[in-house]
Amino acid sequence: MLSKQPIIHELIRQIPKQFSWIDHRLITQRYIDDLSHQAATLYLFLVTVGDYRGLSYYSDKTITKRLSMSPLELKTARDNLIETGLIAYQTPLYQVLSIENKERMKPLIKINENKRYHDNKSKINDQPIYLGEIITKIMKGNV
Question: How do residues 80-136 score in pLDDT, each as one tens digit?
């Protein structure tokens, strides 16, 4: 077996007070195989900025700027992570989820997808609806 020794002893990583981790099962259970490059980038960002429960609430504008993504690329990456069962999203809150056996995750992913689609009903083509439109719909009973 190869004996591993640090190359630069003075720069050995230390665990800071605020730390995050990337679960090795991302690789061993092949979750990463199902991710686009943009989704993997977004996942790394969310793991890094999340609190101890995996929660963060960065805006789409901030994320697209930090990760050099278009809004469509961000939405596609987020959808990829949701479908893979790695995150949950409820505007504006992200939650990095515990990585479990993929088969065990399927029912939970379905519930998560239903919440996501429910949350997006207030948008048309990912554009905000003006308050006047909402009031008009309420007055007409179309909500």
Answer: 999 998 999 998 899 999 887 666 666 565 555 555 544 444 444 455 566 666 677
pTM: 0.67
From CA 41, how far away is CA 44, in angstroms rounded? 5
Please answer whether residues 93 and 55 qualify as being in contact, where contact means their C-beta atoms are separated by less than 8 angstroms.
yes
Query: Quick check: 3 and 45 in contact, CB under 8 A?
Result: no
8 A C-beta contact, residue 83 and residue 109: yes
Domain 20-140: state its class. mainly alpha
Put residue 12 in one of left, alpha, beta given phi > 0 → left and psi -120 to 50 → alpha.
beta
Under 8 Å between Cβ of 84 and 60: no
CA-CA-CA-CA torsion sign (44, 45, 48, 53):
negative
